[in-house]
DNA sequence: CTGAAAGCGCTTACAG
DNA sequence: CTGAAAGCGCTTACAG
């Protein structure tokens, strides 16, 4: 191996002109054969081969930056996350999305550029400079609950192809999201079918579309099943749940629905309150989670059962976003650019018929 | 947003020459003031202002692609994994490494290219063509237990900077690994201190350096503590553990040490055998794992306790590999290019004093 | 203090 | 079938 690594003069990467010299042709010709361009189809097979050989021998690899400057594609897709791509503390909640993106990118022969600009600033907001860098890729996937509008607008205006992972409100923005509305409504329907009429829906203060959609679904589901809507929606930052839980029990609430976000604050707070009160699910209280938590945290408190509710098809969202982005890059017409994927219902065992009226689970 | 995404004609973005025209200066001057370059410090304040104003008015935004081309070096680090980067089935075992890499890359202002070449071919072996692609990055991180030598050699010869994550045997190859030898020896010492003399070490057939190191550490630890070495090392592919376990108990074995690999075959097989035999750890049998499994699988069988053994500092390995790679890229002298990071011992509650001789846990 | 020029490594008309 | 030339939008010596 020689110690090429240390101080060893690094040999300059070969470029097309090097190949040209070796093969005895012009740089233009090199570019033509290397791109396998269909325009200058008429290349002598022998010339072609000579160029190919030289390129192989020199270990040529096209420079993606130069390629992009000259306005061509380079088989690289970007992924820009408006929060650390690999969060430490968030229990890897978004890992499956990354997995899906990587999987499909690989299947399509695309490399993936992870743009790290956003994670640097602790804010999680993408700073404009780092956002601009995404242009070295052929197109970019965006992802994160909170996203700055302006820089993205810029990209859109310039015709740079991109796709959001997660539904967006802005018109004309391509995205692949999850159908939280239907899935949430279905959960309420399930609760109603089990006999619950007085339910609480716990959501965080977050304003993201995914939260709004869940709430809409919950309300829609409640209305269509005759579940009480008064006092149904409760906002929390994850604290003060002990008191809330107590008041709910006083009011005869028999089931609680929680949204699962990246912070997991609401669910964590509720879980703690339930444990503290010594309640058992679903005997004392039915529980449903909108959007299944990932990994080890997917256990219901005091039971070991898996939460009832629905799964977010994160992996599939990642995959589909890659497919859509590729379509946009190739300029395909008539592609559906706003997609909602169905969420799989999960019958996890935390929903049961309501406890008999008048029975206070805390006195047992 | 106009429908810029689909075929819409896009307005040309302003460039430096536009500013130059408006401000009545040369494009060079524009570049100078915009970069705030320290070299051409001597810019008339008035000129400077004029340029700044024009830039502001035109809404100028530098083109990152052009900037990079001109500046040489593209602030991209590669990560090439000799297996799917985001495995589905392997319980995300390597996730923390990715997290560390991403974290440090972000801190250093580097973007990350995930090369997907290796995952495409089901083989997990990187095909030479895809491997060559890594040259588009300024340098590359390699990762995976089994790695093809030849293409890497090529890269080294060309002076392309790279770093392995995980120890390598080849001389002169830069790496950041874990000190499995010391950590494994320490585990044996702990077992000996608890009173165990007859121990079995279960490893897979795998030949990777990380496996070899663990075995070496186990043997070293056994020798220095008077633990029996005869029959100590046992190889398995994860099957036939029921029989093996029975024979060990017959032989008076009181503790088992298992290596944890990416497949987890040995540990999974052993765990199943233990459960099947109805043994409880550590009462009936002490257990230690060399290299902690990740996430939900980190629970010991029949107990719920965390495994004793040690943690692999994956996140820190990722971070440190990025740092080292950056040093190599900048051509730093006298850098330690072969690093082993210490593994944190884990006292997880699966090690206890040996059961009394003659007590057969299976008859209780 | 400022500008003309070359160059980063490619692609793409346009001529032969 | 192949090459000379211009251009993508910047940066960086090098001259004035």
From TrEMBL, chains A, B:
Gene3D superfamilies: 3.40.50.2300, lambda repressor-like DNA-binding domains (1.10.260.40)
Signal peptide region: none
Start and end residues of each stretch annotated as Disordered: 343-364
SMART domains: HTH_LACI
NADP among keywords: no
Keyword vocabulary terms for this entry: DNA-binding, Repressor, Transcription, Transcription regulation
Annotated ranges, domain HTH lacI-type: 14-71
Pfam families recorded: LacI, Peripla_BP_3
GO MF assignments: DNA-binding transcription factor activity; transcription cis-regulatory region binding
PROSITE patterns assigned to the protein according to its UniProt record, in alphabetical order: HTH_LACI_2 (PS50932)
Name of the featured protein: DNA-binding LacI/PurR family transcriptional regulator
Organism: Allonocardiopsis opalescens
